[in-house]
Amino acid sequence: MSNLLAIELGNEPEYWAGAKQPIVVNNGGSWTPAEDAESQNDWGTRVGQALGRKSIIQYGNSNQSPPTWGAEELIATMNTTAESYAFDYAHHNYPGGSLTSLMSHANIVSNMKQFNSDVAATVAVGKEYVLGETNSSKYLTRFH
Questions:
Q1: Confidence class for position 142, pLDDT limits 50, 70, 90
Q2: What is the residue extent of each domain of the chain?
Q3: What percent of the chain has pLDDT over 70?
Q4: What's the CA gap between 47 and 106, in Å, rounded?
Q5: Class of the CATH domain delimited by 7-143
Q6: Which residues contact 72 (CB under 8 A, 6 or more apart)?
Q7: Can you tell me the distance from the alpha carbon of 57 to that of 41, in angstroms, rounded to the nearest whole number?
Q8: Cα(112)–Cα(64) distance, integer angstroms
Q9: CA dihedral defined by 28, 34, 37, 38, rounded to 10 degrees?
Q10: Beta carbons within 10 angstroms of residue 122's beta carbon
């Protein structure tokens, strides 16, 4: 598939324990950022190797505010093999509110500040940072 940019593995893992996902049940009912990072490193490497393609995985895809479950935390756990399969790093952002609050410059600036460390960490490893899901835009927002 020549036009495939990246594959997202997992979605909002911080909610898995409460939802009793099979992977959490097999892990004794817990799921932490450290366990998720280990899992993402393993999955990304296995999928990338199976496809024979580097830069194919969109790592991250959490919803809770960074730094916990953030790209900076995830990148700090990665080995060079897992990192070689990274296309980008993503986070979800649902600030909510009214149209007025969503369009407020002050609110936008305040909301985006929470991602500064994650953006810096992804730029430091030469990758883009993506807001892969938001409630105020149908388009991906990329920072690089």
A1: low
A2: 7-143
A3: 93
A4: 41
A5: alpha beta
A6: 66, 117, 118, 120, 121
A7: 10
A8: 13
A9: -60
A10: 27
